[in-house]
Amino acid sequence: MTNRKKDLTEIIDAKRRWLNSHDIGYQKSMDNRHVQMIALGGAIGTGLFLGTGGRLQTAGPALLLIYLVCGIFSFFILRALGELISNRPSSGNFVSYAREFLGEKASYVAGWMYFVNWAMTGIVDITAVALYMKYWNIFNNIPQWTFALFALALVGIMNMVGVRWFAEMEFWCSIIKVLAIVFFLIIGIAVLISGKPIDGNATGFHLIIDKGGFFPHGLLPSLVLIQGVVFAFASIELVGTAAGECKDPKTILPKAINSIIWRIGIFYIGSILLLVLLLPWNAYHENQSPFVTFLAKLDIPYICSFMNIVVLSAALSSINSGLYSTGRILRSMSMGGSAPKFMSKMSAQQVPYAGIVSTIVIYIIGVFLNYILPSKVFEIVLNYASLGIISSWTFIIVCQLRLRKAIKEGKANDVTFKLPGAPFTSWLTLLFLFCVLVLMAFDYPNGTYTIASIPLIALILVLGWFGVRKRVQEISKKHLQEMNVYEEYNEEKID
Question: 24 lies in a domain?
């Protein structure tokens, strides 16, 4: 082919056509109700149903403010992702956008850090499912690993048979979680209005300032807790992955994203406020759902079993989401060269089965390790997953900033669905995420060890990059040539 260099706009268009080709083969079968519940399910998980009790013990009424701040920044991240989706929907999510705006190195880092997040999270969630099943005495004689493997098999099959089966499971798991919160809100408001004391304690706003005030343990313990609350919102970015498989992403996704902010306000902020107004903050415990703590004092029959079903559905939802997202992310990475070639394979049901099976294998190994290693080891490992969430959200914001720059330079079409207040809110969100990392260092020992290990993680990623770099460059150059766009070979541009 004759050496010639075409206009930069033509090169950019060619790259976008190549990136869009990564979504060929997926079913476009998700409709509005599925995407709405995927978005909502991602924002409501075990972090709310289980983790809130321990956080109330640590922060007291200040937890309300912490959830509010984290909810606002979660909304900013989703709106930034919404800009990227409006520009180009992709099942590769922010990994595909990192490839488009930041290059292959960034795509490689974004993809593998996100995979680590879901791999670690899934291992813990599968084990949690088994533990939740043991709550009912009827299952005491059944080995715990049986439930773990059954849960993995169930969710694996749902993901393998087609995207609509995944969406249906996520829809009904989210329905269970929403109904549980609505049930609590109705009962809680009724009790609060009635003015009836609970366990000898009068309900009301006085509980916010009683027992040590708004910050009963001081400011620093509450601030450190921000990093834990951030991870309660993990999975909200799943709407980006769903964009590549829904019927009308540019219409459906903005509606889903906009609905999340008021749902977070009602379900998260509303629930925390009610919990604080109904019982003293020190009445809640780390190893018990705060909803159970309150409802059990009302002597409602079978309430503990009901909440166990809710938490069980939240864990299954998390495993379901993990397999769904890693399968798509690994396929996107494979097609760019930064993951093994076989992970790009699709089944007859239009499912990226190779990536899903790879994740299932890791989950099985993790469940086995969970029985032979001390639980503390897995607490530390799960903390490493938190780095994956922070890096993923950071890539979303940085890509959104690069999209704005491309629009300004005329290299991309403008979008109507935008992050309010950007670029100020974009930079503010990046500052917030950096502060979360700093606060993690104060969370001794797990958070401190996690931050101290960042140089080691960076070294592993660098070594891995040199292992895939040649294939990434070859694939990039090949696709540019196939699309009749020649660019003088430059490793820095392809990287």
Answer: yes
